[in-house]
Amino acid sequence: MTARRTDIAGVVLAGGRSRRMGGGDKALLQAGGQTLLARTIAALRPQVGPLVLSSGSEAIRRAAAALPAVADPLPDCAGPLAGILAALEWLRESAPACRWLVSVPVDAPLFPGDLVTRLTAAAEEGGYDLACARSGGRHHPVFALWPLSLTDALRRAVLEDGVRRVDRWTAGYRLVAVEWSAHPQDPFHNVNTPEELAHLTAILAD
Question: What pTM was estimated for this model as a whole?
Answer without folding.
Answer: 0.93
